Amino acid sequence: MMHNKSDSDVTSLAASSPPRSPKRAVYYVQSPSRDSHDGDKSSSMQATPVYNSPMESPSHPSYGRHSRTSSASRFSGPFRSSSGRKGNRKRVNDKGWPECSVIQEEGSYDDLDKDRLSRRCQIILGLLSFILLFTVFSLIIWGAARPYKAKVVVKSLSMDDFYAGEGSDNTGVPTKMITVNCSLKISIYNPATMFGIHVTSSPINLIFSEIIIGTGELKKYYQPRKSHRILTVVLHGEKVPLYGAGAGLTLSNTGGAVPLTLDFEVISKGYVIGKLVTVKHRKHVSCPLVVDSSKSKPIKFSQNACTYD
Q1: CA–CA dist 29, 46 (Å, integer)
Q2: What's the per-residue H, E or C state across the chain?
Q3: Which of 45, 58, 202, 258 is spaced 20 to 30 Å from 299 by Cα?
Q4: How many CB atoms lie within 10 A of CB 2?
């Protein structure tokens, strides 16, 4: 038997029934992509849904294959499933995260140290090879330039003044004394084809019985390759005391010949490769001669009159 419910009953039932809970808000938690192997530099965040009830959770038994597919289709980026491209599908682990391959280092620090050491050894080896080659090259050039020696020839000696007489030295000791003033002509030839030479000389001495009665010196100069040059050097001596050596000397007022010796050394130096490769030669010259104060003609020297060592 059915009873009709009055309005008061409906009202009381509505008042007694519990109030409905408001609709829950849906929140999304964003997590960064851990796919570092693909080199994706974008900083986009992937969305992970939060379900309102256990029924909507993927762990519920009623959550089927269709639900997984439809849920996975809501993801974007590298997590999105592409049914048409099987090659781009990424494998996931048990928790649903994509697997990442480990980045391996190409080499160890020991290999870098070995590379640096080998590079230093190569630089040192190259530098030593360059020095060795340059040394060999310099020795070859030096050996080729060594035979080119300056040729020296004494041409003549002009006696401008030659006087032998009695006198006394600074202490008042009486002795024979000589005054000399003459000029010497020398010819120098540079046969080198590759370099010029710098020429100078030791003191050019005019000697009487081992006593230097006149002296002069060749000023240093530069002579180009394959060239001749004639030089004039003045020899001078003023009242040189002879002491015991002048016992046999003939005085100028009586006339007579006086034996003398001309002695000097010519020095030539050539810079083949700057100052790195140089050649240096010395030539000793000795010329015996006889001076007569009564004659004023120049004394000429033949080729065999002097010795050249």
Answers
A1: 9
A2: CCCCCCHHHHHHHHHHCCCCCCCCCCCEEEEECCCCCCCCCCCCEEEEECCCCHHHCCCCCCCCHHHHHHHHCCCCHHHCCCCCCCCCCCCECCCCCECCCCCCCCCCHHHHHHHHHHHHHHHHHHHHHHHHHHHHHHHHHHHHHCCCCCEEEEEEEEEEEEEEEEEECCCCCEEEEEEEEEEEEEEEEECCCCCCEEEEECCEEEEECCEEEEEECCCCEEECCCEEEEEEEEEEEEEEECHHHHCCCCCCCCCCEEEEEEEEEEEEEEEEECCCEEEEEEEEEEEEEEEECCCCCCEECCCCCCEEC
A3: 202
A4: 4
Section 41-47 average pLDDT:
44
Residue 179 has pLDDT above 80, yes or no: yes
Judge whether 271 and 225 are in contact, CB under 8 Å.
Answer: no
pLDDT at 154 over 90: yes
| pLDDT(171) > 70 | yes
Structure-token match 């020839």, residue found: 153
Contact 223, 201 (CB under 8 A): no
Q: Looking at residue 49, what is its pLDDT?
A: 52
| Radius of gyration for the chain, computed over Cα atoms and rounded to the nearest angstrom | 58
In residues, how long is the chain? Answer: 309
* CA separation for the pair 211, 241 (Å, rounded): 9
User: What's this model's pTM, rounded to 2 decimal places?
Assistant: 0.56
Give phi and psi for 281, each to the nearest 5: -130, 150
pLDDT in tens, 89-111: 556 666 666 666 655 555 555 56
